[in-house]
Specification:
Elements: H1 7-10, E1 15-16, E2 23-26, E3 31-34, H2 38-45, E4 51-56, H3 58-66, H4 68-75, E5 79-82, H5 85-93, H6 104-117, E6 121-126, H7 131-142, E7 147-152, H8 156-159, H9 161-171, E8 175-179, H10 184-191, E9 200-203, H11 207-212, H12 220-235, H13 237-299, E10 305-311, E11 317-323, H14 334-337, H15 358-366, H16 373-378, E12 383-385, H17 392-396, E13 411-413, H18 426-439, H19 442-458
Parallel strand pairs: 4-5, 4-9, 6-7, 6-8, 8-9, 12-13
Antiparallel strand pairs: 1-2, 2-3, 10-11
Length: 463
């Protein structure tokens, strides 16, 4: 199993990786969406087990906000697939780029191609009379070997749910595609979940209309339906704009505003925590700070404090304070020891660094050398919890993904500090920091502060 941070343990907004399909919780939408490639998603949907799956686009999210019955049906689904640019942009508002846009018109044919190769059958339920048949004909033409277990329209064929369910079950279909439209199809699937015997049930919206519209010799009723769509586009542009353009704009505005408010609240909570903890710590630790300063001065020539330029929020540099743990000429000798780094990646660290003094090794082992950074916290340059403050030379060589860790203030402690510090590789540290940024909250910060005490006592990775 791959190590990851789940929303329940570390907060919202983190991808959940394990042997099950990767998902991400988006607070702005209050939804947990699949975050995986189309091939991986299809493989999971067709793996052993029963699943009810819905697509979620901007229109669906708008309904989800105002319709409690639909929200209940969505909550009961096993998986939710991101569908459309609206959801993709909403994910970016919360700082998460989805792996793929799994829109139904592209994803379902890929899913059925894999199903055909596995010998699985599919039942098409929904659409106007003749549309499901036309969609089935298109699928059979495009996907050799696909087994269509049956079709049923979503008008007269859907009026008697008992008869529809009996027909679907009698067909022995492994997959049932339900195209009754949002939110009717989700409500129908939620209501009848225990009665349907198929392993996979999937709400597909207007997919059958899309498939049947491309059939060269469709039945008259299908051609009539196609002409109705043309008429709607020509005669009712305002209605279409109101539903699709204004609807998406409303959805995106809501998602963006909710994400912004959450970020502002998180920043306020974090600043309050920073000030409270740093002031209390300085008051309580003043004797220890004075003793450490005297020990540094007595052990080697040079000032007790070490000042160094680091990179902070949004790439802005600041002067970071530490107790000096190396010889006074350590900076000029850095190039001599870079080849001896114990750590893979950009961040230099060496157990046998000859520049470290005797008192300095003890300060590092106990993390006391980091305590002067409490003044950086009070000045607003750092936080108690956050990513490790990086050197400008390190940031200059960052890959694009690593730049994401500069979206928040660096911290005295954080996920990497409590997970092994120098024993954690550069790439793993970056993933930890990015995960923290997406999930950061007052609760998570308090958890990491408490875990810091254990990390200090163990001394793991501190040298």
């Amino acid at each position: 199993m791959t190590l990851a941070y789940s929303p329940s343990k570390f907060g919202a907004g983190l991808a959940v990786k394990s042997r099950r399909l990767q998902t991400v919780y988006l607070p702005a939408l209050d939804l947990e969406l699949v975050d995986a490639s189309a091939s991986r998603a299809a493989a999971k949907l067709l793996s052993p087990g029963r699943r009810r799956v819905f697509f979620m686009n901007a229109h669906c999210c708008n309904i989800h906000r105002r319709d409690p019955h639909y929200a209940e049906a969505v909550a009961g689904a096993d998986l939710l697939l991101p569908d459309g640019i609206g959801v993709e942009l909403a994910a970016k508002f919360t700082g998460h780029a989805l792996t793929a846009n799994l829109n139904g018109t592209d994803f379902v044919p890929q899913l059925l191609q894999r199903a055909a190769a596995m010998g699985k059958s599919v039942y098409l339920f929904g659409g106007r009379p003749g549309v499901a048949d036309a969609a089935a004909a298109r699928l059979l033409r495009d996907i050799p070997g696909l087994c269509i277990a049956g079709t049923r329209d979503g008008y007269e064929g859907a009026q008697d749910s008992d008869a529809a369910i009996a027909a679907i079950n009698a067909s022995g279909a492994d997959i049932v595609l339900v195209a009754l439209g949002v939110p009717m199809q989700e409500l129908w699937l939620h209501r009848n979940a225990d009665r349907l015997q198929a392993d996979l049930t999937l709400g597909v919206g207007a997919l059958f209309d899309f498939l049947s519209g491309s059939v060269a010799r469709a039945p008259k009723v299908v051609r009539a339906a196609r002409m109705e769509w043309v008429w709607r586009l020509a005669m009712e542009p305002r209605r279409m704009a109101r539903r699709y353009l204004a609807g998406n704009a409303s959805f995106l505005a809501h998602a963006g505003l909710k994400a912004l408010r959450r970020q502002q609240l998180t920043n306020l909570q974090q600043r309050c925590l920073d000030i409270t903890v740093s002031v209390l710590a300085l008051l309580m630790l003043t004797p220890l700070l004075l003793a450490a300063a005297l020990a540094v001065r007595a052990d080697s020539r040079g000032p007790a404090l070490f000042k160094q330029t680091r990179v902070g929020l949004n790439g802005k540099t600041f002067t970071m304070f530490k107790f000096r743990s190396m010889t006074a000429d350590a900076e000029t000798r850095r190039a001599e020891v870079l080849h001896a780094s114990d750590r893979a990646g950009l961040c230099f660290k060496s157990r046998q660094d000859p520049r470290i003094t005797r008192v300095g090794r003890w300060l590092r082992r106990t993390s006391i050398d980091e305590l002067p950074q409490l003044f950086n916290v009070l000045r607003g340059e750092m936080s108690i919890v956050g990513p490790r403050p990086a050197l400008p030379s390190e940031v200059a060589d960052y890959p694009p993904r690593a730049l994401g860790r500069l979206k928040v203030k660096p911290g005295i402690t954080g996920v990497w500090q409590v997970s092994g510090r120098a024993s954690v590789g550069f790439k793993e540290m970056i993933e930890m920091d990015l995960g923290y940024i997406k999930a950061r909250s007052l609760r998570l910060n308090l958890q990491l502060i408490l875990r810091t005490f254990g990390a200090v006592v163990s001394g793991r990775g501190a040298y």
